[in-house]
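Sync notes, pocket subgroup
Present: LS, DG
LS reminded everyone that the earlier model was apo-only. Rerun requested with coenzyme A included. Inputs:
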Amino acid sequence: MKQLEEVLRPPERNLPPYPAKSIYLASGEKMVVRQASREEVPILLEAVAPLTTVERDFYDIVASRTYAELLGWLRYRVRDEYCLVGLIDGVLVGLVNGRTLSKKIGVSYHTIAMRRGLRVGAHLFAAKMEYHIEYLGQDEVYIVAESPIGFRRWMIEYPLVERPQVHHELGGVMSWALTRDIYFAAKPRLVAGERPVPANLMATAAKIKLVGAEALITQVSGKPGQA
Ligand SMILES: CC(C)(COP(=O)(O)OP(=O)(O)OC[C@H]1O[C@@H](n2cnc3c(N)ncnc32)[C@H](O)[C@@H]1OP(=O)(O)O)[C@@H](O)C(=O)NCCC(=O)NCCS
């Protein structure tokens, strides 16, 4: 049995860590962005699950796929995945995940903003690009959008370039790419945050807290408790 499990598990690389940073949001709040550990996946699944029924802005498809990806990480069924979380006073306000395809190529999976109107998602996506380019030292990241807001945020704001020959692993859609040149050109505009995070602020982000399903649905869809 143990032998079979070894066959079922993809080999894993030891990815360099993402150093935490803090971002001053338009609301005046500070969001800590840090790497999540595999041990934290169960609480992330709990956070994402209520969004799988929210049709607004394609939260349902994005949350369902993110749920499967995170579960795949927990159960050792995906190769080289990582997840970064955004926390305000320890409360989860968004997350991003992705993986490495090879030493030089990264794959962006998903971005979910759990609080709207503060560019939490945009900041977290930028942190994910920062991780691939500056900490993993990759040449480019394959990206797709599953929603018009995502398309506006990534393809247009950076802007990304098309990679028509690459069918992204999220549904086989044509990939777009963030190259090193695109990243460094966009960095002054889009990549925010300060390091190191002061110890007292970092301490608030040690344990992930959730707002609860009803409040979360209201936050993302504007409708209390229903999608
Ligand atoms: C795409 C996403 C990550 C962007 O996050 P973000 O940068 O924090 O942006 P928000 O979601 O707060 O805002 C997006 C737009 O909705 C508007 N908006 C703000 N508050 C809102 C609210 N409470 N409800 C609905 N829309 C709101 C904003 O005005 C913003 O418009 P803008 O582009 O002109 O600024 C986020 O919208 C999201 O999680 N969407 C669902 C999942 C998804 O599509 N992920 C990306 C897959 S490619």
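DG: The mean pLDDT is 96.
LS: The domain at 2-221 is CATH 3.40.630.30 (Aminopeptidase).
Action: DG to write up.
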